[in-house]
Amino acid sequence: MRQSPRLSLTRPSRSLAEIAEPHPSTIAADTVPDLPLVTHVTHPIARAWQTLQIDFSIIFERDPAARNWLEVLVCYPGWHALVLHRLAHWLHVRRVSFFPRLIAHVARLFTGIEIHPGATIGKGMFIDHGMGVVIGETAIVGDYALIYQGVTLGGTGKESGKRHPTLGNHVVVGAGAKVLGNIQVGDYVRVGAGSIVLRDVPSTCTVVGIPGRNICRRDQHVCPLDHGKIPDVQADAVRLLLDRIERLEQELKDLKNQ
């Protein structure tokens, strides 16, 4: 008697070190094998399906609490908001009136995440927890961004045109951070929790504080989940001052002994 194949609900097994910097060509294929991957994408529907695959699979890489695909499919508001946004954005770029805003409104009611239909979101973005996230109309978010609860990608006034930030690829925005205005945030940037960013940020930098200060670390890429490795500017400055005071005291002591 032939046995029917069993449906596996377990999360894909993959170490965090392997997915610290996911590669676009492999991220979907080796994380959710149950979903057929479209490799040569030409049709818009196939392209949209591939984007949703990547959006879904990135959750297992970014969230250690993701147990299985059914749990993610049903219980992750960030995933729900992103799927609804992609539909609303598809209608928005085709100049369909009313319905894109209605879809965005429904998504906000059910998920607590507000994304304007005009916002451009790259593939593989993960909104963790998500409550209170606001993304404005002209915001642009690159591929594989990681955004936590309470984040605002907003404007600074009532000006028209491009008035929201542009985020590069592999950007991490910590809980409660605000990135405001028509500014450019480079690739592999990390924005610390509670920071307010008002100026452009070069690639591979960490931004902390109010207003945000750039702490460049161009010689290394830190895993986006290693939140404790954000540099402490104040501690570094105090350490340098203490070292200098110690050297001056030693020089003064040597002068007295002469």
Q: How would you characterize the overall build of this protein?
A:
The chain is of the alpha/beta class and 258 residues long. The chain has one domain (17-257): UDP N-Acetylglucosamine Acyltransferase, domain 1, CATH 2.160.10. It has helices at residues 44-62, 69-75, 77-93, 99-111, 233-257, and strands spanning 114-115, 120-121, 126-127, 134-135, 140-141, 146-147, 152-154, 166-167, 172-173, 178-180, 184-185, 190-191, 196-197, 205-208, 213-216. The strands form three sheets. A six-stranded mixed β-sheet has the order 3-6-9-12-14-15. A hairpin with a 4-residue loop joins strand 14 and strand 15 (213-216). Helix 3 (77-93) packs antiparallel against helix 4 (99-111). The chain is elongated and about 85 Å long.
